[in-house]
Amino acid sequence: MAEVQEKVEEKVKEPREPLFSKKNRKLITDPLTDNNPITIQVLGICSALAITAQLKPSIVMAISVVFVLGVGNVVISLMRNIIPSKIRIIVQLVVVAALVIIVDQVLKAFAYELSKQLSVFIGLIITNCIIMGRFEAFALGNGPWKSFLDGIGNAAGYGVILIIVAFFRELLGSGTLFGAKVLGDPIEKTGLYAYGYENNGFMVLAPMALITVGIIIWIQRSRNKELIEDN
Amino acid sequence: MALNTDKNSYTIIFSVLMVAVVGSLLAFTAKTLEKNIKANKRTEKQQNILFAMGVTDQDDPNEFVPAEKADELFNQYVGENQYIVMGSTAEKTTKAFEIDVKKENDKIKNDPTYERKMPLFVGEKEGKKYYIVPMRGNGLWDAIWGYISLGSDFKYISGAFFDHKGETPGLGANITEAYFEQDFIGESILDENGNYVGVEVKKGNADPKNERKEDNAVDALAGATITGNGVTAMVKKGIKMYMPYFESIK
């Protein structure tokens, strides 16, 4: 982060804005709440369905997307004046693909079991609409520091929803959290299972991720009426 | 900035430079991490082989042995008891571990006269011998592979491990689940006349507790017909190649 700050200070010579001005802070906080990429913009749904059956892969996915989107936004933003507009989508794809391959290789080298669990989904970060969306909508028109904040903010907003969904799906679907049997043992019939509780097997299937996301959207919109589109 | 980014020549120069920079960056990353990734794959293979002979995590029999112990346990249970089988003969060599079943499959596809080198691992646990056979086949979307261990009677399966590259999560991907793998344990690969038939992943088998060990079939997974058929074909073909050798040492 220190590196990024230095670069910003060199570039922005005009009326200097504090690094964490109100506007800049909004770049991070907005996507976490009222402009969440998943629940408001409904982007990145595919991966939210695929990997949220358990908490651990969701958290790793969230961290990977924070890294890819944060760094990617800065790279695109630094190049925004020299990218030929005719091939800008290709350039964006190359940047995100290169970053994703690096994440994949690092995971394979240092967290092999996790990389096996995430398998194709790491590769699928490339197709995550949030990433291309932020490159195109934000990084191409803003400085690196702002783009960095925007990238982190949006990726975190995505990650928060991922983790919430995964929490409920793992808890209700398998009765575990991070693989620990928090509700007792379903086979030995201990804990909650002694009273006839059963895991809801449907929760581990993809459709329930959509329904969980739907419930989050519902709660969010019922608390903040401004988010409801009129039609 | 006075840069005219719309010119064709600029676009071409930019893309060429971009490819060169990104290409070398990725090559550099791959080269630096190569060693770690290779070591991880080696550990995984050791864990797989140990799993197929029933050497698992102390606390959870459905999990692999811990990665840091894989090397030690592999040496303890299998060690140098590795063979390269060719037809009905075998050569004892630790090179067996390095043989890539996929490459051997490819070689025989390109050249039918090629004599395939088949790795065989012989583990010993509590006085019993486990003959562990690696195999590889096709699922619905991509490759599937596994290890099956046979007892020294060469009739009953004593352990199985399956993995896949890209089967559907929740359906075909369930071949990696312990409840599916355990179904193979104790299954006979010979029919009542002693002829080799393999083990079929069978729909409507209706034997959830897997009590019929002589029927050469295990219950199929719901929603995973093609993957199941892939497992059937892989197991049948995989073990069959070793049968001439097994017959000779029986």
Automatic annotation (TrEMBL), chain A:
Pfam families: Rnf-Nqr. It catalyses: a ubiquinone + n Na(+)(in) + NADH + H(+) = a ubiquinol + n Na(+)(out) + NAD(+). It is a multi-pass membrane protein. Keywords: Cell inner membrane, Cell membrane, Ion transport, Membrane, NAD, Sodium, Sodium transport, Translocase, Transmembrane, Transmembrane helix, Transport, Ubiquinone. GO terms for cellular component: endomembrane system; plasma membrane. GO terms for molecular function: oxidoreductase activity, acting on NAD(P)H, quinone or similar compound as acceptor. It is an enzyme of class 7 (translocase). Its EC number is 7.2.1.1. The chain crosses the membrane at residues 59-78, 90-112, 118-135, 147-168, 201-219. The keyword Transmembrane applies. It comes from the Bacteria. It is found in: Cell membrane; Endomembrane system. GO terms for biological process: sodium ion transport. Belongs to the NqrDE/RnfAE family. Composed of six subunits; NqrA, NqrB, NqrC, NqrD, NqrE and NqrF. NQR complex catalyzes the reduction of ubiquinone-1 to ubiquinol by two successive reactions, coupled with the transport of Na(+) ions from the cytoplasm to the periplasm. NqrA to NqrE are probably involved in the second step, the conversion of ubisemiquinone to ubiquinol. This is Na(+)-translocating NADH-quinone reductase subunit D. It comes from Aquimarina brevivitae. The gene is nqrD.
UniProtKB/TrEMBL annotation, chain B:
It is found in: Cell membrane. Residues 139-242 form the FMN-binding domain. One of its GO terms (molecular function) is FMN binding. The keyword Glycoprotein does not apply. Its cofactor is FMN. InterPro entries: FMN-bd, NqrC. GO terms for biological process: sodium ion transport. It comes from the Bacteria. The modification FMN phosphoryl threonine is found at T225. It is a single-pass membrane protein. Pfam families: FMN_bind (PF04205). One of its GO terms (cellular component) is plasma membrane. Composed of six subunits; NqrA, NqrB, NqrC, NqrD, NqrE and NqrF. NQR complex catalyzes the reduction of ubiquinone-1 to ubiquinol by two successive reactions, coupled with the transport of Na(+) ions from the cytoplasm to the periplasm. NqrA to NqrE are probably involved in the second step, the conversion of ubisemiquinone to ubiquinol. Belongs to the NqrC family. HAMAP family: NqrC. This is Na(+)-translocating NADH-quinone reductase subunit C. The lineage of its organism: Bacteria, Pseudomonadati, Bacteroidota, Flavobacteriia, Flavobacteriales.
